[in-house]
Amino acid sequence: MRRLLPTLLLLLVATGTLSLAASPALAQTGIAPARAFAPGQLLVKFEGQRRGEAIALPAGAGVRETARALRRSPSVVYAEPNYIASASATPTEPFDPDDSGALEEGAGSSTTAGDWAFKQWNFLAPEPSGDSPLPVSPGGIDAVGAWRNLIEVGRAGAPGIVVAVLDSGIAYRDFGTRFRRSPDFGTRQFVPGHDFVGRDRFPLDESGHGTHVAGTIAEKTDNGIGVTGLAYRAKLMPVRVLDREGFGNALNIAQGIRFAVAHGAEVINMSFNFPCGKRVPMVDEALREAYEQGVVTVASAGNLGSETCVSAPATGPRVIGVGGTTEGACLGNYSLAGDEIDLVAPGGGVPQSRCPSVAARPIYQVTLRPASTKTFGIPVEYIGTSMAAAHVSGVAAMVLASRRINPLLKDEARVRAVTKRLRGTARDLGLPRLQQGAGLLDADAATGTGPTFYP
Question: I want to staple 229 with a disulfide (CB 3.0 to 4.6 A). Which of 80, 218, 317, 349 is the partner?
Answer without folding.
Answer: 218
